[in-house]
């Protein structure tokens, strides 16, 4: 039951992009086509889950026992940056097809604040053990993917409709994202 | 390029938020009021200027292959300084900005300037560029925060303007997207009519 609550809350109620504003850059950057946004979602899910596990272990077995919690920001971002590199190298060797699909998105993930944000949230939320953290990371990745893919679908339609000149392109995309966020607010009552 | 041009281009022509669309997460996440926007803008400016200075000073010692991780470590150190300082002296603002303080590390604007400008230019130019871009960023956050505060709670910098309830939606998440969308549209219009 507790896991269900974490999942519902992370995907719908506190959606990482539309309610917590994490990962907004890729949300606008790669959401012009549904296909690319699916690729990005795959890459983010992959890195987010691994990064959350590793940073969770660092937080609870290194930073807290040695009382150096102030090193959190530096150590987490270093872990994520090297993890992205590692994932890139391994994927290239093990699964060239997957590497082709995710390839261009991987370097971008280092500066995706959703990954660092989820890692920090999972490591610092009271009562989250390793399993809860992993569930939390997966749910957030799904929430990110859901928002990204819905938004990409909407944007493909935006190209075809008649928009006032000044609103063309980015401004109308923001307004649409706002309306999407408004729709997601409807889930607030659930949890 | 003249020094003045480096300084001022971050204000409008290459404004990080309105034109380049960099650093959107803190822009949307922290601008519930003008004060919060200003606080986040100034914190980011500090990190940006300091990282630009350090990167431009030690650029010749950093091997090309590891420059990105090196930049990230430099940026993360200054973010930690901001984090601890703010926790000690501005605990209220530290609580409101919360998660977005450590997330300054992954603000694409800072890494972008380190990579695109500071690693290729002199110490003085990089400092000026840091200040210009940072002030442009802080300005954008303050404007967005002010708009959301006026529409959402009827005040600006905590000074009440009109009585009655504001439109709550502008304080909440959807209003951030919508307000920024319209601000960009207005700026596009102004740029074109010039």
Structure commentary:
The complex is a heterodimer of chains A (191) and B (194). With 191 residues, chain A is mostly helical. Chain A has helices spanning 2-13, 24-29, 34-63, 72-94, 96-102, 106-109, 113-124, 130-158, 170-185. Chain A is globular. The model of chain A has no long low-confidence stretch (mean pLDDT 85). Chain B is built from 8 helices and 2 strands; from the N terminus they run H-H-H-H-H-H-H-E-E-H. Chain B has helices at 3-8, 24-29, 34-58, 67-89, 91-97, 108-118, 123-153, 173-193, and strands at 155-156, 159-160. Chain B has a two-stranded antiparallel sheet with strand order 1-2. Chain B starts with a helix and ends with a helix. The model of chain B has no long low-confidence stretch (mean pLDDT 87). The A-B interface holds A 18-25, 28, 70-74, 76-78, 81-82, 110-113, 116-117, 120-121, 166-167, 170-175, 177-179, 181-182, 185 and B 21-26, 28-29, 68-69, 72-73, 76-77, 79-80, 83-84, 99, 102-103, 105-108, 111, 169, 172-178, 180-182, 184-186, 188-189, 192.
Short summary:
The complex is a heterodimer of chains A (191) and B (194). By secondary structure, chain A is an all-alpha fold.
Q: What's the layout of helices and strands?
A:
The complex is a heterodimer of chains A (191) and B (194).
Chain A lengths: L1 H12 L10 H6 L4 H30 L8 H23 L1 H7 L3 H4 L3 H12 L5 H29 L11 H16 L6
Helix pairs in contact in A: 1-8, 3-4, 3-7, 3-8, 4-5, 4-7, 7-8, 8-9
Chain B lengths: L2 H6 L15 H6 L4 H25 L8 H23 L1 H7 L10 H11 L4 H31 L1 E2 L2 E2 L12 H21 L1
Antiparallel strand pairs in B: 1-2
């Amino acid at each position: 039951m507790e896991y269900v609550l974490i999942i519902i809350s992370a995907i719908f109620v506190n959606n990482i992009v539309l309610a917590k504003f994490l990962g907004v850059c890729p949300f606008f950057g790669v959401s012009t086509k549904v296909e690319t946004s699916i690729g990005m979602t795959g890459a983010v899910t992959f890195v987010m889950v691994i990064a959350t596990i590793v940073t969770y272990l660092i937080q609870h077995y290194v930073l807290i026992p040695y009382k150096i919690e102030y090193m959190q920001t530096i150590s987490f971002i270093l872990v994520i940056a090297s993890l992205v590199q590692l994932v890139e190298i391994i994927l290239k060797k093990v699964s060239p097809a997957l590497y082709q699909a995710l390839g261009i998105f991987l370097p971008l993930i280092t500066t995706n604040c959703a990954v660092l944000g989820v890692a920090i949230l999972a490591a610092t939320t009271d009562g989250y053990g390793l399993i809860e953290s992993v569930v939390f990371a997966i749910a957030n990745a799904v929430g990110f993917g859901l928002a990204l893919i819905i938004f990409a679908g909407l944007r493909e339609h935006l190209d075809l409709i008649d928009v006032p000149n000044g609103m063309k392109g980015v401004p109308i995309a923001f307004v649409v994202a706002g309306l999407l966020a408004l729709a997601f607010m409807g889930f607030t009552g659930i949890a | 390029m003249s020094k003045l041009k480096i300084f001022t281009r971050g204000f409008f022509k290459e404004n990080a938020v309105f034109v380049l669309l960099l650093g959107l997460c803190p822009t949307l996440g922290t601008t519930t009021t003008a004060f919060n926007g200003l606080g986040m803008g100034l914190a980011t400016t500090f990190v940006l200027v300091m990282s630009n200075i350090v990167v431009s000073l030690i650029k010749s010692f950093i091997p090309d292959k590891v420059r990105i991780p090196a930049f990230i470590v430099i940026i993360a150190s200054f973010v930690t300084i901001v984090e601890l300082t703010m926790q000690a002296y501005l605990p209220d603002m530290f609580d409101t900005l919360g998660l977005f303080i450590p997330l300054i590390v992954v603000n694409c604007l800072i890494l972008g300037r380190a990579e695109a400008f500071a690693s290729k230019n002199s110490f003085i130019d990089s400092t000026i560029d840091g200040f210009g871009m940072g002030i442009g960023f802080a300005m954008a956050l303050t404007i967005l925060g002010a708009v959301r505060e006026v529409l959402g709670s009827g005040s600006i910098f905590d000074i009440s303007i009109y009585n009655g309830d504001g439109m709550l939606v502008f304080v909440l998440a959807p209003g951030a997207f919508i307000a920024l969308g319209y601000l960009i549209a207005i700026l596009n219009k102004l740029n074109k009519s010039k």
